[in-house]
Write a structure and sequence with these properties.
- The protein has 460 residues and is of the alpha/beta class.
- The protein has helices at residues 28-34, 43-52, 89-102, 122-132, 210-213, 233-239, 272-284, 365-382, 388-397, 419-422, 429-433, 443-452, and strands at 13-18, 56-61, 64-69, 78-82, 106-109, 136-140, 159-164, 168-176, 181-185, 194-200, 221-225, 247-251, 267-270, 289-299, 308-309, 329-332, 336-339, 348-349, 353-354, 359-362, 410-411.
- α4 (122-132) links the parallel β5 (106-109) and β6.
- α2 (43-52) packs parallel to α8 (365-382) and α3 (89-102) packs parallel to α4.
Length: 460
């Protein structure tokens, strides 16, 4: 039903529905909590803001990515359908069917489903009905990572979207006492004062486990080597606040770190190659010291080319049916700044201080999908006569397979990405408005495709 929140709806958010029919018979208190269209974890707010958020000046993530925020289609209107807050796939089906009945133009689905067979997958079933009514359905590829065939919901009649990086680097600059400066990675959410502090590298303590941290020298910047042992970034970050050190330098080649928005201890992440100079200086200098500057946002080709395919973005081909290549496109999906629920816990400082923000950075194909949904809305407004297939064609034939250095898009480990990872490439909104040539497909073409799969009567 439409949420009874007319006082908070407006010309941007024109309505919100929730779907909990599958929960009848549950505990009454649980039902009361479930029967709302309001966002319970910030995910829905974030993806809606990416697709169609209006202009908001002077926003940032605690000093990172400062500027004016806006969605891809800032003048589009939003109808919200909360289907999986507590519910089941039956509610997912009901939500999509209701959106079709309400007459929406685009359905953006930042959800995946484990059923690989088209006749079992509720997203497949419901999105076919939407496509029959001329509605464009955009779907996140999923976050199941590097292996081939990790896409589950690679639905032929939906636009399936992979996740890529953008040309923006959140930095902490490490400056050594000898003047050498290294642009590391940091999202520490404060302007900590780390100036001319002794720099220490002790190989025995460099794993920075909870036991070793307690033995680290006080009032020093300690160097943690995450490339050895089994200690992960989040584990070390939880251990560091218990130390007497004011900051840390972390050596890592784990690309998943660049998707984290939690950085609770002052420090920077540098690569093993960059670490050679740092460790050498710390060991050989008579009085090694260093400074760190935070809250820096760097745009352009350095320190890394963009876009790159995110390490967690699911790859094709689609399991269950490999006849159509998926994903279709790649869109920005790593550290995307968008609106958030300020009542939900954000990043931390230390282990005990929770921060709150109206805007946050999140990563995943959930964030990539609404970029394409917003672009589809722009194209539909500019070309109302275009079918869903024509809109998809315009986006795919104009997508860019090159990064901002003019080289083929790579994965984050620097291997050249393939179409099973990036589809046609990164979306290019300006080119998509005037593609020159589009390829159309009718509902009958999709019916013929289904018939070619030799499903039984019960399956169809």
């Amino acid at each position: 039903m439409w949420e009874n929140i007319l006082t908070t709806c407006n010309k941007k958010l024109i309505g919100a529905r929730f779907f909990t029919e599958s929960l009848y018979g549950s505990d009454p208190q649980f039902l009361k909590a479930a029967r709302t269209a309001r966002d319970g974890d910030g995910h829905g707010t974030h993806v809606a803001s990416i697709a169609a958020g209006n202009y908001v000046k002077d926003v940032s993530f605690f000093g990172y990515a400062p500027g004016t925020a806006r969605g891809v289609a800032p003048h589009a209107r939003l109808a919200i359908y909360r289907v999986l807050g507590f519910g089941t796939t039956a509610d997912l089906l009901a939500g999509i069917d209701q959106a079709v009945a309400d007459g929406v133009d685009i359905i953006s689905i930042s959800i995946s489903n484990p059923d690989t067979e088209l006749y079992k997958n509720p997203l497949s079933i419901a999105s076919f009905g939407a496509r029959e009514k001329g509605i464009i359905v955009c779907l996140s590829a999923g976050n199941r990572g590097l292996g081939f065939g990790t896409i589950r919901s690679g639905i032929p009649w939906a636009v399936v979207v992979a996740s890529g990086t953008v040309d923006r680097w959140f930095a902490g600059t490490l400056t050594l006492g000898n003047g050498k400066a290294i642009t590391g990675w940091s999202l520490f959410p404060s302007r900590a004062l780390i100036r001319n502090i002794p720099l220490v590298y002790n190989e025995t303590l460099s794993a920075c486990s909870s036991t070793e941290i307690a033995e680290a020298p006080a009032n020093t910047i300690i160097i943690c080597n995450l490339t050895t042992g089994n200690y992960h970034f989040d584990t070390v970050m939880r251990a560091l606040p218990a130390s007497n050190a004011p900051a840390a330098v972390m050596i890592s080649e784990d690309y998943s770190i660049y998707r984290f928005n939690e950085f609770p201890f002052p420090g920077v992440v540098i690569s093993p190659r960059e670490a050679e100079d740092v460790v050498s200086y710390a060991l050989k200098s008579a009085n090694p010291e260093a400074s760190i500057d935070f809250q820096q946002t760097i745009l352009g080709t350095e320190p890394r080319a963009a876009p790159a395919l995110s390490d967690d973005s699911s790859r094709g081909p689609r399991r269950g049916y490999e006849g159509i290549l998926k994903p279709d496109l790649m869109a920005p999906g790593v550290q995307i700044l968008a609106a958030f629920n300020p009542e939900i816990r954000g990043p931390k400082i230390g282990n005990n201080i929770d921060l709150s923000s109206d805007y946050t950075l999140l990563s995943g194909t959930s964030m990539a999908c609404p970029h394409v949904s917003g672009l589809a809305a722009l194209l539909k407004a500019a070309h109302p006569e275009w079918s869903p297939a024509a809109v998809q064609s315009a986006m795919m034939t104009t997508a860019n397979p090159l990064d901002n250095t003019g080289q083929p898009i790579r994965e984050q480990d620097n291997m050249v990405a393939t179409p099973v990872g990036i589809g046609s490439g990164m979306i290019d909104p300006n080119r998509a408005l005037n593609p020159g040539l589009i390829y159309d497909a009718t509902v009958q073409d999709l019916v013929n495709l289904v018939c070619s799969m030799n499903f039984t009567r019960e399956q169809t």
